[in-house]
């Protein structure tokens, strides 16, 4: 019995271990089953705690990228780009290896060889690049030399680095809007820019860019693919993609040749006389096409310099009392009504009418003179007689038919309607000579077209109407005979010995013209300002006088009379050279407005060509060109490949190696801006026109950031 009990006690631990083993087996089985069912549940349902695992994985590895639509290009009438989309690239070098793996290096491993490659494509020396690549930074950029790179340059760098199996150079893409002509009808062409740095969308905020923003913008696309944690695309996957729809291009009626010349002349007058406002607008007298338009204040669309001075487009938003240029419309109405009697006489000086006194500019008058002499001298009293004789109601009908107080509908935002109140007797009379009524320059151009177009007004417009030279006619307000007779009489102001427009005579061309000196109301008191400078001085010229092709309307408000005795002389400084140049371009003896004078062609590619070969090719073609640098190979060029150019454009070619400054004599502001864009030099440009002096001599070595001062002057 004792022996049996001892045996049981000896076997008790064994039994315990066996029980524990059984328990552990059962527990493991239960846990295994639980995990099995849990994993099965996850695999079947694809979610944990309400979170969709498949969506989480997709979010982790899937990339949705916007495919930007190209914004449409704005061209001038001859196909020269005025505003274009620019996709540029900034080059960045990764120097740290913390994002690299042994199999996939992300950083620069061979700075010496990389610097040799990069120096062949950007305007920076090999040693400068190498010194940046060995800095103790995580990454470095390359200043102006490594920004605003074209797609061609970026692709060439990538291809050469890939072939040499060199790593560490990345590119950041950015969209911008390029305005290659700088100050160039800036308020009319407008501005398109990104809302903020993070948003890559470019939106029109001014002028044509704003008015046609939907048409120019197009529709963005998108692409969806999967990438690994290093950012590489996972192969053999299905890629979802919706291609973008690019914006539509727009061709304007503006002529780049005359616009650039107009801007240079207007800027000279602006610098010399510092007026409050200048407007200068050239229109095709038959079709209403705006050929050139300028104003001051304005801004440089490339640099944004001056953008804070004024956002107002004076062509359509500037309302003012026009003064005596308005007498063109009064004269035409009076001829139409048979109340203009050129050889009848009247007493000049002043007249009591409408409960007030109307005076001529010379208060004592010129005695008893004919109405034809009154027109030549711009007598207010003469035109009062004409309105009184035709009747106030009849004159009001003409004012309405001319479109005053109504928007023209030109393709620009924020057009003002002006005002045509016509309430009080004296106010009605004053409209005869351009007081008591508020107009915009574009309304005046439209009304003038009735005289130049056989009595039929045309709608001024900026966008080409399908068929070039096609007019948008509005209404017949005068008979052809009246229009012809009006032009005949308006020659008196230019060629009569007493004419107020004698200073506007253009050699080689006969013109019809009318000057104006309008008073300016004080916004606080409502009274007219006093003083010789406090006027809006203006002129309208229509030429050739017998059958006008052009209407040129210029206003200069409150100029400083520092070197002149009368504000009209400031107007002459704009009108005479520009009208002469325009008539030389567009006169019937030279060429039609509907013809392109300069042959258009596409810009060839000189990238990677031998420098001497490119020089020989351009010289043989008699094309203006300049080489920047001492290298043996072309690395960048302007204009860009395939852009439309004409025979007047200068081609700039940047070589590898050290940069040298060309002879800038005769270069335009546009040429200088392209030079700065290519090289990164800082240009200080004084004056308008073409280069006459440069602070560094031709052949001097330059680099990014070099300061260069150039002096421009008109070449007329």
Automatic annotation (TrEMBL):
Entry protein name: Penicillin-binding protein 2B
GO biological process, one term: cell wall organization
Family: Belongs to the transpeptidase family.
Family matches, as SUPFAM superfamilies: beta-lactamase/transpeptidase-like (SSF56601), Penicillin binding protein dimerisation domain (SSF56519), Penicillin-binding protein 2x (pbp-2x), c-terminal domain (SSF54184)
Domain of life of the native organism: Bacteria
A GO cellular component entry from the record: plasma membrane
Transmembrane annotation, as ranges: 20-44
Domain annotation PASTA: ranges: 655-714
Residue ranges of coiled coil: none
Compartments (UniProt record): Cell membrane
Cited PROSITE patterns: PASTA (PS51178)
InterPro entries on file: Beta-lactam/transpept (IPR050515), Beta-lactam/transpept-like (IPR012338), PASTA_dom (IPR005543), PBP_dimer (IPR005311), PBP_dimer_sf (IPR036138), PCN-bd_Tpept (IPR001460)
Organism: Alkalibacterium olivapovliticus
GO MF term list: penicillin binding
CDD domains from the UniProt entry: PASTA_Pbp2x-like_1, PASTA_Pbp2x-like_2
Keywords recorded for this protein, A-Z: Membrane, Transmembrane, Transmembrane helix
Topology class, membrane: Single-pass membrane protein
